[in-house]
Each structure stands twice: as C-alpha cells, then as structure tokens.
C-alpha cells in the first residue's frame, strides 16, 4: 500500500520540528528498506509570529494567515496529511479552512484521548498561551501555579533559542522532575512541542523515566501507519 505524503508545518520552534523528523524515522524502523520509510515534507519557518504573544495581544490573524499560506504552499507539493508540531497553534484550528482541518492530525485531541485511556495523573508543561487558552483540560491533568507557569514558559523559550544544548537539557530535566514531585503527579505532558527535545534526552539518559512522559509528537511517531497509510 502506498504511503501518503505527510507535511510537517514546523519552525515553532525549529529545533523541535527537526528532532520530530528524526523521531519519526527512529520509531518506524520496522517499515524495512529505505523505499518503505515515511514520506515526509518538513516546512520549517521560524518567521511565523509568536503564538503566545499573538494570543495575549489579540492579534491572531497574523498567525493564522501565515499558517494557512504555508499550508497552501505545502499542498502544492501534494501533501495528504498535515502535522503542525506546535500545541499553542491548535488554538487557531477553527479559523483554518475546512480542507486544512480535514487533513490535520490534531495533537490536542490525541493527547486528551491518551489521558482518558490512562489512569495516570499528569502535570502540564506548556506555554503561557496554552495555559491561558486552556487547550488541554482534564480531571487528571494538573495545572501548575501561575508562578511555576512563568518558570516553565521561560525555560521553553530558552530551549527554542538554544535547542538540545546538553547543560540546558539537564537543567530542564531537573526542573521537570522537581515539579512533578512537588505536585504529586505520575508524570508530565509535553504541552509545548519544545519539550520533545527533553523527551528525546530522557529516552537516551533516563530511560526509566521515559514511560512517565506523555509527548504528543511521540504519540504520532509511534502510530505513524495509522496516519500515513
């Protein structure tokens, strides 16, 4: 069966969407020879306006217009499935054209479905924009205090700037673990895709902890045949 061409509308931030492509291939080794590997087009455009700033300022049109324009360009390449690796951008979903929504994998829905299937309690790590718009709400999703939300947001934006710098990932892991323990959660949700960098770090360096992370991009990568065939 021929695979669909999957478009990844990334750049929010660029390090996370680039690492997501690596994750897709690493999690689908069972597809066999090179010609059977996932068919992916990555559009990484960091010039997309900041989502949290746009939400806070009420200037959402600039973000949606840019995302729609990039989707239209990717559609000309023949993509059949769309993944936008930015949780905060899902706030704008209802403003996208119907055709764009129909081909889009909704990371928020995937995450909430996984929480519903699990019996675990998760602490939400997200941007201020995602906290403010309450994109991820469930009785077993814990929301940090406003003070800790600011701390998490600042950490995420440092990761957007510096990517997978080892000392930064160690710091992020220490912060994440201390907050999970402080709130009495079983694990955390990577409610900003920048935390995918941390997921990959944990899988390499702290493997026992990896099962306690609910990462939307990892969910997609592991269920790739569901979306691509």
From TrEMBL:
One Gene Ontology molecular-function label: amino-acid racemase activity
Keywords: Isomerase
Pfam families in the cross-refs: Asp_Glu_race
Top-level taxonomic group: Bacteria
This protein's record includes keyword Isomerase: yes
InterPro entries (UniProt xref): Asp/Glu/hydantoin_racemase (IPR015942), Asp/Glu_race (IPR001920)
Name of protein: Aspartate racemase
Species the sequence originates in: Tumebacillus permanentifrigoris
Lineage summary: Bacteria, Bacillati, Bacillota, Bacilli, Bacillales
């Amino acid at each position: 069966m021929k695979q669909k061409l999957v478009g990844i509308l990334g750049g929010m931030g660029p390090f996370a969407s680039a690492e997501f492509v690596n994750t897709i291939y690493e999690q689908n080794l069972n597809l066999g020879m090179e010609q059977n590997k996932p068919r992916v087009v990555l559009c990484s455009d960091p010039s997309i306006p900041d989502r949290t700033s746009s939400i806070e300022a009420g200037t959402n049109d600039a973000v949606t217009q840019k995302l729609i324009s990039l989707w239209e360009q990717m559609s000309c390449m023949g993509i059949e499935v769309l993944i936008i690796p930015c949780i905060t951008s899902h706030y704008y979903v209802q403003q996208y054209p119907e055709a764009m929504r129909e081909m889009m994998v909704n990371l928020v829905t995937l995450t909430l479905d996984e929480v519903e299937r699990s019996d675990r309690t998760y602490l939400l790590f997200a941007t201020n924009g995602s906290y403010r718009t309450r994109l991820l709400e469930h009785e077993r999703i814990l929301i940090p205090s406003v003070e800790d939300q600011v701390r998490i947001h600042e950490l995420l934006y440092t990761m957007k700037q510096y990517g997978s710098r080892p000392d930064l990932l160690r710091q992020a892991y220490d912060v994440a673990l201390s907050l999970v323990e402080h709130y009495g959660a079983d694990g955390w949700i990577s409610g900003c895709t920048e935390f995918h960098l941390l997921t990959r770090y944990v899988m390499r360096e702290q493997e026992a902890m990896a099962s306690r992370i609910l990462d939307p991009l990892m969910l997609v990568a592991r269920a790739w045949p569901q979306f691509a065939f």
